[in-house]
Amino acid sequence: MNTLALIAQATNTGASEGLSVASLVRGVVGSLVYSTVGLVMFAIAFMIINKAVPFSIRKEIEDDQNTSLGIVIAAVIVGIAMIVSAAVHG
Hints:
Low-confidence stretches: none
Mean pLDDT: 80
Radius of gyration: 19 Å
Strand content: under 5%
Number of strands: 0
Largest sheet: none
Number of domains: 1
Order of helices and strands: HHHH
Number of helices: 4
Oligomer: single chain
């Protein structure tokens, strides 16, 4: 169950139906852990791409306005986001 659902359930039903503060904290901590893992994966993927290409990605996108490279980097980011979301969802 995701964090927003836990918060909504806590405000609607209260602790009387089995929802405890511990489960809410567990959901928030889980969200923070997966967010951190996702950010680390983004950083690692970008570093791998940056080392693998023989040119400067920053220079190509910012100075030379290379739209194609921007689209490729965006595709990598979306792909990693899909992997992280699948891991979170289970």
